[in-house]
């Protein structure tokens, strides 16, 4: 069986900022355009090197064949840890392997099939709260629905009481994380800037005492 080879194609940008401006203006459009250029495209976002892998075979190789050696961008990991704490989504190396083994049984196909009842029940409960003529923030509603299903199905935790808080604060946390990722020069975490104080306050309100299930249950 022959193994296909793919050539890395570099996408040019500004000498200082790279492709950061184009990426900021239209993230989805920029990534879609890059994927059409080649299966592997490299570009800079300010001082950071980024590689976009879009071919299914390469994605499988990275996510399945070489999944034991996950490598996360240091900046992304740092931003996630400030929001979620240390857990499966932010750990690497032996810590990641340990967390992955602990959660593996819950992701087995037979087990996943059993989550259907929980998904249907939570979805029905959501629709029963809606009424004709009501205006709803679909993104916020879906965030809350996802949180309720995941925490109950995977971790047997009832997050109903916290769903409204999480759905309201997560968009603000995402906005802060996006600004930090897009920043050309990073601000040290130890500086007590208004943004850092707000980020800590939102994170505490959203995930008090390590509420975030992927971290709390795997720590």
UniProtKB/TrEMBL annotation:
<keyword id="KW-0349">Heme</keyword>
<keyword id="KW-0503">Monooxygenase</keyword>
<keyword id="KW-0408">Iron</keyword>
<keyword id="KW-0479">Metal-binding</keyword>
<dbReference type="GO" id="GO:0020037">
    <property type="term" value="F:heme binding"/>
</dbReference>
<dbReference type="InterPro" id="IPR036396">
    <property type="entry name" value="Cyt_P450_sf"/>
</dbReference>
<dbReference type="InterPro" id="IPR001128">
    <property type="entry name" value="Cyt_P450"/>
</dbReference>
<dbReference type="Pfam" id="PF00067">
    <property type="entry name" value="p450"/>
</dbReference>
<dbReference type="GO" id="GO:0005506">
    <property type="term" value="F:iron ion binding"/>
</dbReference>
<protein>
    <submittedName>
        <fullName>Cytochrome P450</fullName>
    </submittedName>
</protein>
<dbReference type="InterPro" id="IPR050196">
    <property type="entry name" value="Cytochrome_P450_Monoox"/>
</dbReference>
<keyword id="KW-0560">Oxidoreductase</keyword>
<dbReference type="GO" id="GO:0004497">
    <property type="term" value="F:monooxygenase activity"/>
</dbReference>
<comment type="similarity">
    <text>Belongs to the cytochrome P450 family.</text>
</comment>
<dbReference type="GO" id="GO:0016705">
    <property type="term" value="F:oxidoreductase activity, acting on paired donors, with incorporation or reduction of molecular oxygen"/>
</dbReference>
